[in-house]
């Protein structure tokens, strides 16, 4: 498997142009809708802006009726909880607007089939396209085709190999996800001598997994009392999570914290923990499923937090697409145009703030 092979979510490093230095610009609290917080920037590189994204119910986009627009939406097959939430968030957001018609494809993990679905939308002459590619590199040409046809493209999360293939990119921050997981664990263990942590990663051949690990390791460097003593790479599935977590538990009779990259594979990890009868450590999840948030709220598990990779990004992508088609800028910004790049913030959800984020949890 190569870096261009799609994972369940996350931006893959398909293009050197996407590896720009971040200039994080956060506006407002993380619990506010991403539509109100999209930061303006001046280049088409991924890392030029970031914004909080949690509650799409909170509003923030320009609700004033404008010209009627048709948004074509094409994503991969919804075979993972996060991807299903991506589709549902887009549908729900489009229903909010009387001036928006959403033409959504069935989705496919087969690149040729997804290209065909996007070409159908191009031939229908939709006003704007939102595309979460199954493989960013493989779908770059169809993005270029849409742009040449005068149909602006909002590239959602998995980035195309050329910035000319999209007008705007919006997606998550995998490095920031790992960084915030590491910071949370570090603060919980900062007073414990010789603290030990383990990591249950995702698919190691994916750049998104390596970015999450890099952020996690960088955060732990600030806590000299903490050592990462074990790491296993799973495959974003329940079965792999259970098998790999069982291996970590067997190899490490004691540790103080676990970071799991993905809440879906975390279902399996929790099964392995229960079967082994283990506790005495804290667990941090990744992505933000509703099940995990409810477990955190109940407070009766080793699972104490999860780091968001917000599927509400698709709702914000609909906001961006609507603004593009109607020639609008975004509320809260001085610019007349929408930004070229928006990076969402990976908030840490704990028992203290879980009620704020529960509405965004995916099944």
From TrEMBL:
UniProtKB keywords: Signal
Main localization category: other
PROSITE patterns according to UniProt: TAT (PS51318)
InterPro entries: Peripla_BP_I (IPR028082), SBP_2_dom (IPR025997), TAT_signal (IPR006311)
Parts forming coiled coils: none
Compartments, as annotated in UniProt: Cell envelope
Record field: compositional bias (Low complexity): 47-60
Limits of the Periplasmic binding protein domain: 71-328
SUPFAM superfamilies xref list: Periplasmic binding protein-like I
Keyword Signal included in the entry's annotation: yes
Start and end residues of each stretch annotated as Disordered: 45-66
Xref: PANTHER family: D-ALLOSE-BINDING PERIPLASMIC PROTEIN-RELATED (PTHR46847:SF1)
Family, similarity comment: Belongs to the bacterial solute-binding protein 2 family.
Name of the protein: Substrate-binding domain-containing protein
Species name: Streptomyces chrestomyceticus
């Amino acid at each position: 498997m190569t870096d261009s092979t799609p994972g369940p979510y996350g931006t893959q490093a398909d293009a050197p142009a996407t590896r720009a230095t971040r200039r994080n610009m956060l506006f407002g609290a993380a619990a506010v809708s991403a539509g109100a917080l999209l930061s303006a920037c001046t280049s088409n590189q991924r890392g030029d802006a970031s914004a909080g994204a949690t509650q799409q119910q909170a509003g923030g986009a320009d609700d004033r009726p404008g010209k009627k627009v048709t948004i074509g939406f094409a994503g991969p097959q919804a075979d993972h909880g996060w991807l299903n939430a991506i589709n549902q968030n887009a549908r729900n957001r489009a229903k909010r607007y009387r001036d928006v018609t959403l033409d959504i494809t069935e989705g496919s993990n087969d690149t040729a089939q997804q290209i065909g679905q996007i070409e159908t939308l191009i031939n229908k002459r939709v006003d704007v396209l939102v595309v979460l590619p199954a493989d960013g590199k493989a779908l770059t040409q169809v993005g270029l085709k849409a742009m040449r046809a005068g149909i602006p493209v909002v590239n959602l999360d998995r980035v195309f190999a050329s910035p000319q293939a999209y007008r705007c990119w919006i997606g998550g921050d995998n490095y920031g996800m790992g960084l915030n997981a590491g910071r949370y664990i570090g603060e919980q263990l900062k007073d414990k001598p010789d603290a030990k942590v383990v990591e249950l990663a995702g698919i190691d051949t994916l750049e998104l997994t390596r970015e999450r690990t890099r952020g996690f390791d960088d955060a732990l460097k600030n806590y000299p009392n903490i050592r990462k003593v074990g790491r296993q790479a799973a495959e974003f599935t329940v079965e792999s999570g259970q098998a790999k977590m069982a291996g970590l538990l067997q190899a490490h009779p004691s540790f103080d914290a676990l970071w799991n990259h993905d809440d879906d594979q975390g279902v399996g990890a929790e099964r392995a923990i229960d079967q082994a009868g283990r506790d005495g450590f804290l667990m941090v999840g990744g992505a933000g499923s509703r099940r995990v948030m409810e477990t955190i709220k109940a407070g009766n598990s080793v699972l104490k937090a999860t780091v968001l990779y917000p599927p509400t990004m698709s709702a914000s992508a609909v906001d961006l697409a609507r603004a593009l088609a109607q020639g609008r800028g975004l509320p809260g910004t001085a610019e007349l145009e929408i930004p070229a790049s928006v990076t969402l913030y990976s908030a840490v959800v704990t028992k203290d703030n879980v009620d704020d984020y529960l509405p965004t949890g995916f099944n």
